[in-house]
Design a protein that fits this description.
By secondary structure, the protein is an alpha/beta fold. It has 3 domains: about 180 residues, FAD/NAD(P)-binding domain, CATH 3.50.50; about 120 residues, FAD/NAD(P)-binding domain (3-Layer(bba) Sandwich), CATH 3.50.50; about 70 residues, FAD/NAD-linked reductase, C-terminal dimerisation domain (Enolase-like, domain 1, 2-Layer Sandwich). Strand 23 and strand 24 form a beta hairpin. The mean pLDDT is about 95. The structure holds flavin-adenine dinucleotide. The site of flavin-adenine dinucleotide has 37 residues, from helix 1, strand 2, helix 7 and strand 21.
Length: about 400
């Protein structure tokens, strides 16, 4: 098959959906095609590790309804080659797609453990991964969660909430280490333990194999752990191979300008894959969070459809851990100067991350509706110190 689209979007995720909808908002007659390699049409990814487990949402609720915008979704197809000179993309089924303007929104792929332990070890990212994990993570099942970052800590909380016996394994000293202040990290370790999770910090998974109806993991402390399933969340890498093969500028993702345009004038990039410059932080970022995916997707769509404006948003991110939750903006790096402003220690408050007196990041812990205020603070020149920051962002009541 050969078809052609005015706008072709490669990757069928959240950035792709947002871009398609914003193009069609500006130009209702625009011919937009999306090629995505997942069987499911574009859907919200964050509920996979939270709301679907709590029963707040079902898989049918997370569909983004992209086709309703008028975009044509070519699902279950992977673009494997890009001929920039011919403005042509080819998929793994032998189909070709001509385009005038192209958006790369290929997202990211989970990092893998260096061994195969069969279908009960799931590197968690997609709706299919959720379905696979759900099959094994029944009430009473023992699930090992590898990783103590965003995905690992969310999944561990959700699996414990679903009645699984959960063991968290990660090499760092505590949950959130390197990101949160020490006291908050220790609080989280205790909080998870109180909720029945075995927190094994400082432990690497070095090997593993499928055994009967389970998985046996070999750990760096010499122990062996037999579990019913393993959920792995050890970070992701951007899906930039296509861009690389096509000769676009790639450096920790596809390098884009302030219009989210790549080194090719007819190709844009958005979401987890895009390496963009943020003016408030005066540095390049690649952000693996929903607000960046949706905001950049939307923005890229607008620019592609002819609205010439810079993307200067500092994306925020959020997470839910049992009944704790937060929103955060900028750099959460505990190596920066950290100012803690707790209304109730480790339960509700604000953590500021400073570099040379400038606020570079803000963690809004169980503190809501302050994202824009945090962004403004990050944009200011300062200098700030602890006394000028404490009480600055109103705590929620
Ligand atoms: C379990 C989970 C929970 C999350 N929770 C949160 C949260 O609480 N808060 C938050 O801020 N963020 C969260 N995120 C992050 C957020 O979901 C991502 O940042 C966002 O989905 C990125 O969107 P994207 O469109 O850039 O990429 P993706 O959503 O990864 O979509 C890219 C799509 O393109 C496809 N694709 C890749 N290459 C090709 C190709 N060559 N041809 C065709 N298709 C291709 C991929 O298979 C995928 O379907 C979570 C992520 C996960 C996995």
């Amino acid at each position: 098959m050969e078809c052609s689209h005015d706008y072709l979007i490669v990757g069928g995720g959240m950035a792709a959906d947002a871009a398609a909808k914003s193009i069609r908002e500006i130009d209702a007659a625009a011919d937009v095609g999306i090629v995505g390699d997942e069987a499911a049409p574009p859907y919200q990814r964050p509920p996979l590790s939270k709301a679907l487990w709590k029963g707040d949402k079902s898989p049918g609720d997370i569909d983004l309804d992209t086709a309703a915008s008028g975009a044509v979704v070519h699902g279950g197809r992977r673009i494997v080659a890009l001929d920039r000179a011919a403005h042509l993309a080819r998929d793994d089924h032998g189909n070709s797609y001509r385009y005038c303007r192209l958006l790369l929104a290929t997202g990211a792929t989970p990092r893998r453990l260096p061994f195969d332990a069969g279908e009960r070890m799931i590197h968690f990212r997609t709706l299919d991964d959720y379905r696979a994990l759900r099959r094994f993570a029944v009430k009473g099942a023992h699930v090992a969660v590898v990783g103590g970052g965003f995905i690992g800590s969310e999944l561990a909380a959700s699996l414990a909430g679903a009645g699984c016996k959960v063991t968290m394994l990660f090499p760092g000293p505590s949950i959130g280490a390197g990101r949160y202040p020490d006291a908050l990290c220790h609080f989280l370790d205790d909080y998870y333990r109180e909720h029945g999770v075995t927190v094994s910090a400082g432990v690497n998974v070095v090997d593993g194999k499928a055994v009967g109806e389970g998985v046996e993991l070999a750990l760096s402390d010499g122990e062996t752990l037999r579990v019913d399933a393993v959920a792995v969340g050890i970070g992701v890498t951007p899906n930039a191979e296509l861009a690389e093969q096509a000769g676009l500028k790639v450096d920790n993702g596809v390098v884009v300008d302030d219009r989210l345009r790549s080194s090719d004038a007819d190709i844009w990039a958005a979401g987890d894959i895009a390496n963009f410059r943020n003016p408030a932080l005066d540095r390049r970022l690649r952000v693996e969070h929903e607000d960046a995916a949706v905001g950049m997707g939307k923005h890229a769509g607008r620019v592609m459809a002819g609205i010439d404006e810079p993307y200067d948003t500092l994306p925020f991110f959020y997470s839910d851990l049992f009944d704790l939750g937060y929103e955060a903006v900028g750099l959460l790096d505990s190596h920066l100067d950290v100012v803690e402003d707790w209304r109730e220690p480790c339960r509700e408050g604000v953590v500021y991350y400073l570099d040379g007196g400038r606020v570079r990041g803000v963690l809004l812990w169980n503190t809501w509706d302050q994202v824009d205020a945090a962004r403004e603070l990050i944009a200011q020149a300062g200098p700030f110190d602890a006394s000028s920051l404490r009480g600055r962002l109103p705590h929620s009541t």
